[in-house]
Amino acid sequence: MLVESKRDMRRRIVRLRDHQTESGMAELSEAICRRLFSIEMVAKAEDILLYADYGSEVRTGSIFARAKRMHKNIFYPRVEGDELCFYRVEDLSELQVGFHGIQEPFMQKHIAADFIYTAVAVVPGTVFSRDGYRIGYGKGFYDRFLARYPKVFKVGLAYEVQLVDTIPREAHDVRLNGLVTEEQALFW
User: Fold this and answer.
1) 138, β-bridge pairs
2) Strand order across the beta sheet in which 47-49 lies
3) Nearest one of 186, 164, 188, 157 to 33, comparing CA atoms
4) What are the phi and psi torsion angles at 16 (to 5°)?
5) What DSSP character marks residue 50?
6) Is residue 48 over pLDDT 80?
7) Which 3 state secondary structure label does DSSP give 172?
8) Is 117 helix (H, G, I), strand (E, B) or coil?
9) CA-based R_g, the chain, Å
10) Position 150 pLDDT exceeds 60
11) Which of 59, 68, 93, 164 has a 20 to 30 A CA-CA distance from 7?
């Protein structure tokens, strides 16, 4: 049996993800948001590390809005060299197009520091496995960041179409603590 490479798996799943309608993605993203906030660790967290959705990723606007209503500190990543640095964002107008066309904080105020150890990191990806691993876009930004902060609660967001049984793993891949889709929440 031929094992699919990360690259081929990423391409195949992104094609599936891309074939959803905008209204379909919005509806599924709302269901994912509701399920995400039903997780006790997320509901109790003071600090949320969120991503700005890109392409056909799970939409995160309603997550931002709900976290704001709950008076949480919300941080978005900015690519700086080979690393991700997270900055506090109080309004989505503080984001602008950055690395590879992804929205990033441009004001660079209130950088996330040591309190990040008790944060919840909402992690994007292209493919997620039932055993807690993910395939990103191939640059390793999130794996490097998450390896530096192992105590952060790491939860991936995905549509069910992005979920597979297993993915090829490498030594540097960081396992998530949980994964939320429109149909389920998985924990490891």
Assistant:
1) none
2) 83-88, 73-80, 47-49, 120-123, 153-157, 178-180, 185-187
3) 157
4) -60, -45
5) -
6) yes
7) coil
8) helix
9) 15
10) yes
11) 59
Residue 163 β-bridge partners: 128
Q: What are phi and psi of 46, to 5 degrees?
A: -85, -30
* pLDDT of res. 123: 97
Residues in the chain: 188
**Tokens 């030594």 belong to residue:** 171
**Percent with pLDDT over 90 in the chain:** 84
Per-residue confidence (pLDDT) for residue 171, from 0 to 100: 92
Distance of CA 42 to the CA centre of its chain: 13
Query: What's the 3-state SS for 78-114?
Result: EEECCEEEEEECCCHHHEEECHHHCEEECCCCCECCH
Q: How many CA atoms lie within 13 A of 158 on its CB side?
A: 28
Q: Residue 95 corresponds to which tokens in the numbers above?
A: 């984001």
Neighbours of 46 (CB within 10 A): 12
d(CA 8, CA 28): 25
- Which residue matches tokens 């992804």? 102
Residues facing 74 on adjacent strands: 48
Q: Do residues 121 and 153 touch, judged by C-beta distance below 8 A?
A: yes
Q: Model's pTM, two decimal places? A: 0.92
Strand 134-135 to 47-49 pairing: unpaired
Fold exhibited by the domain 6-187: Rossmann fold (3.40.50)
